[in-house]
Amino acid sequence: MARLAGMVALVTGAGGGEMGGGGAGIARALAAEGAVVAVNDLHKEYAQATVEQIISSGGEAFSVPGDVSDPRQATAMVRTVIERCGRLDILVNNAARLGRSPAVERMSDDEWLSYLAVNLSGPFYMSRAALPQMMQQEYGRIINIGSLAALRSSLNGGAGYTTSKRGLLGLTRQMAAEFYSYNITVNALLPAGILGGRMRADMGPQADALVRARRWALPDELGKICAYLASPEAHLITAAVIVVPGVNATGLGDFAQYRAMAKQIGKDIGE
Ligand SMILES: NC(=O)c1ccc[n+]([C@@H]2O[C@H](COP(=O)([O-])OP(=O)(O)OC[C@H]3O[C@@H](n4cnc5c(N)ncnc54)[C@H](O)[C@@H]3O)[C@@H](O)[C@H]2O)c1
Q1: Which parts of the chain are beta strand (E)?
Q2: pLDDT band at residue 207, thresholds of 50, 70 and 90?
Q3: Does any domain span residue 124?
Q4: Are the beta carbons of 121 and 53 closer than 8 angstroms?
Q5: Quick check: is 161 catalytic?
Q6: Which of 10, 76, 160, 213 is disulfide-compatible with 255, CB 3.0–4.6 A?
Q7: Crossing angle, helix 122-137 and helix 71-85, to 10 degrees?
């Protein structure tokens, strides 16, 4: 049974198709549950790779290229989706500025602001544009893709990344409070590690070991969680903060270390 039949979703930063990351997996999973998916990314060809993958699996999708950190483009993208489909039920704010940045004492203004622009202002602009339609429909599901860094710190991204993702938790909670009575839920998924298509291809069989250890998630696994949160039956779940894979939130550190500790106390947790 297609849980999202008749619904329209917009997923930001969802390009790349098979070689894409979390966004592409979320777009595929929502389409597999019957939603028409508007696939956003910075460049049309990149967004189109996911659109084609969805269409070739029998789903419905189209691309809405644009920069989520530009308020005019964000508004225009949402308007395009509503004009084309007549509604907008699900918004997944996944697009992110990723990559390595220096420690605070060497970070430029531009670098700092670029993280806030994409990772925090982007979800704000996209949500602000989508909410009036969701309020009118009395149905809306906004899912903000944060990061475990929001609860800890980040090695790669640095202060801009960590702070923007922490801010996204505030935005999530505030919007959950403001729109709950319209049957609009707002939740945050905090990935700890996503084994995207490109990374999986580069790593080969080693990648499977990471997935088996349940420390990393595959893009489509994140997508399946989003599909549930986006469905009517999840109407009571709002303002939730969900770490994926959840074991990373347990504070038990690295899996190998955990296994060694478990062995010491004679607990069998498998391989
Ligand atoms: N990869 C990880 O291990 C990891 C860990 C923790 C959190 N996350 C979060 O999960 C989400 C997915 O990450 P991923 O690594 O799978 O990446 P992804 O493949 O989903 O890539 C993000 C996409 O955002 C797009 N993008 C960047 N700036 C944009 C903008 N201004 N407007 C529109 N699109 C833009 C990029 O082109 C890219 O395709 C992100 O929010 C990321 O911060 C990822």
Answers
A1: 8-11, 36-39, 60-63, 90-93, 140-145, 184-191, 241-244
A2: confident
A3: yes
A4: no
A5: yes
A6: 213
A7: 30
- Report the DSSP pairing between strands 60-63 and 36-39: parallel
156 Ramachandran zone, left/alpha/beta (phi>0; psi -120 to 50) = alpha
Q: What is the pLDDT of residues 129-177, one digit of tens each?
A: 999 999 999 999 999 999 999 999 988 889 999 999 999 999 999 999 9
Structural domain includes residue 161: yes
What six digits make up the tokens of 16? 């790349």
142, 146, 213, 261 from 257: Cα distances, Å = 36, 26, 12, 6
How would residue 89 be classed by pLDDT, with cut points 50, 70 and 90? very high
- In 3D space, the residue among 92, 74, 22, 78 whose CA is nearest the CA of residue 50 turns out to be 22
Q: What is the CATH number of the domain that holds 80?
A: 3.40.50.720
Q: Which domain holds residue 171?
A: 8-264
Distance from Cα 183 to the centre of ligand 1, integer Å:
27
List b or e across 254-269, with b for residues whose CB sees 16 or more CB atoms inside 10 angstroms: ebeebeeeeeeeeeee
**Phi then psi for 72, rounded to 5 degrees?**
-70, -45
Number of independent structural domains in the chain:
1
Three-state DSSP class for 173? helix
How far apart are the CA of 180 and the centre of ligand 1, in A? 27
Instruction: Work out the angle at residue 147's Cα, subtended by the Cα atoms of residues 144 and 151, and round it to the nearest 5 degrees.
Output: 115
**What's the whole-model pTM score?**
0.95
Whose CA is closest to atom 5 on ligand 1? 193
Q: Is residue 150 part of a domain?
A: yes
CA distances from 168 to 6, 203, 227, 264 (A): 29, 31, 20, 39
